[in-house]
Amino acid sequence: MITGRFAPSPTGRMHLGNVFCALLSWLSAKSKGGQWRLRIEDIDPQRSRRDFAMQLMDDLQWLGLPWDGEVVWQSQRSDIYEHYLRLLQDAGLTYPCFCTRADIMATQAPHETDGRIVYAGTCRGKILDETMKNTPAAIRLMVPGEVISFCDGHYGEQQVNLAHQCGDYILRRKDGAWAYQLAVVVDDALMGVTEVVRGRDLLLSTPQQLHLRQTIESLSSPHRGQLPVDSGAIGESLARRRAKVRGGLYFFHHPLLVNESGQRLCKRDRSLDLSSLRQKHTSPKDIIGYLAFLAGILPSPTPSFPQDLLPLFAWQRVPKEDIIATFPNLPNSR
Ligand code: GLU
To answer: Would residue 44 count as lying in a domain?
Structure first.
């Protein structure tokens, strides 16, 4: 059984790019008879807002993209993340990092193509003195200098050297907030997610997540006496879940929606955010039809319900290059 998921961070209102991701993920899971789960990734207390999350759920319902089961809120799962972090710490796979952003910028030039910074490992192996023990520190995972290969469902074979291309990454921030990679890996495993659909900007997260998942699973094995502390509906242990997903955790990355100057749509593009489109009385069928056209599923932007698209959906139709989304093409009033 395929369980796909949509995992937005509620740090702004949904824009067309988020809807594009939700639609592709919904179609990909539902066209295989699967379930589609919704998880609200509200782990950044400074940026996440509950009203945005509520608005997002209302938007998904309005668009005709219903999810299965209960909504999972990352902000309520601290104890679970804590358990898995401790497992990694006890195995000696993490270290505290005292670097400031300025320290990190000073040791490493941003990656040429996307401005990403690969942490140089400055705090790895640092001998801690007494004063440091009370200094706030981020916690980083030590990654091996290994090439991880995986086959993306849309972009094909990928090979990433974790140490060179990603570096040791943060599991918990200095201010105590949970970092994206740990929360995502633990939740995908415990929720029984078997298919992940997201923007190609997150392609490099995949080898990090595959490696972290494999590491946690090997430490969670019942033979080591380390059983997870989760409970309730998503309370199966990682080790038991592993058996179920052994057939594969599939990743599909999709091209990004960009504006006419090639910049990725973002929360600042107010004209393409769902609230303004709804205010202008654009209908959900128009939005879905337009996005399906951009995704290569429809030959023209014909107003449609998501379920109308199920028989037409195929990943082969979705372009690989980023796609220009222009507001004037979207019928904007009824
Ligand atoms: N929460 C992430 C975001 O809003 C997406 C997480 C994922 O799909 O892995 O960008």
So the answer is: yes
Residue among 15, 19, 41, 49 whose CB has most ligand 1 atoms within 8 A, to mutate? 41
pTM above 0.85, yes or no: yes
**How many domains does the chain fold into?**
1
CATH number, residue 312: 3.40.50.620
- pLDDT tens digits, one per residue of 198-225: 999 999 999 999 999 999 999 986 544 3
Q: Among 184, 187, 256, name the best residue to mutate to test ligand 1's pocket (greatest count of ligand atoms within 8 A of Cβ).
A: 184
Q: Within a domain: residue 144?
A: no
Q: Can you list the positions of beta strands (E) in the chain?
A: 3-6, 35-40, 72-73, 94-97, 138-141, 147-152, 156-161, 169-172, 195-199, 250-254, 257-258, 323-324
Q: Which domain holds residue 237?
A: 1-75+149-155+183-334
